[in-house]
Amino acid sequence: MDKRHFLGAALAAGSMPSLAAPPPRAPSGPVLLTISGGIRRSNRGALDPALDQMMVKHKLEFTRAFALDFSMVAALPARTIEPTLEYDGKPHTLRGPLLADVLALAGAQPADTAKVVLRAVDGYAAAIPMAQARMWKMIVATHLDGRPMALGGLGLLWAVYDADRVPEMAARPIKERFGACPWALYHIEVQA
Ligand SMILES: Nc1nc2c(c(=O)[nH]1)N[C@H]1C(S)=C(S)[C@@H](COP(=O)(O)O)O[C@H]1N2
Ligand SMILES: [Mo]
């Protein structure tokens, strides 16, 4: 099968739309999120041991990565969820694209058995199987209650899901529902 037929078939099957789409532009604003590991599209090179200081401190390693600014995340189709948050026990509206769609932008379509490591600026990291990310419909939230989120609060990006709507998590005490949800998310590693 030549390349054109392959892409056509993939598009028709809906299996790899992001790969067939024209490559997204490089970030023009400050990069908020860097995706490395099992990606098929990159827009930056290797970790710079001199200038990528926070990633060095967090012991990250990569030879290429896909970097996103806020507008690239916000341009993806958004979902809205309304989980009860553990911090105030109240339902809040969170909006942002599916984590799976953010990964697809970097040409990553991890198998259900693959893990993604979601890392926050404070070093907190959660490794979750892709099956869980898909089942929980995890989003990369850009907005809380209609507003962008502060760095110093829960932003700028928060990997989160609708815990109230996932029965096995809703059954748990509220303090045990968000361990897989780093706020101030800045790096995702796709593991094989
Ligand atoms: N960036 C960041 N996100 C985080 C955490 C954290 O320490 N840093 N703690 C996680 C854990 S283990 C839980 S249970 C919830 C609430 O953590 P907290 O009670 O420490 O705020 O947020 C999760 N997200
Ligand atoms: Mo926790």
UniProtKB/TrEMBL annotation:
Superkingdom as given in the UniProt entry: Bacteria
Leader sequence segment: 1-20
Identify the Gene3D superfamilies for this entry: Oxidoreductase, molybdopterin-binding domain (3.90.420.10)
InterPro entries for the chain: OxRdtase_Mopterin-bd_sf
What keyword terms does UniProt attach to this protein? Signal
Q: Does the keyword Signal apply?
A: yes
- What's the protein name? Molybdopterin-dependent oxidoreductase
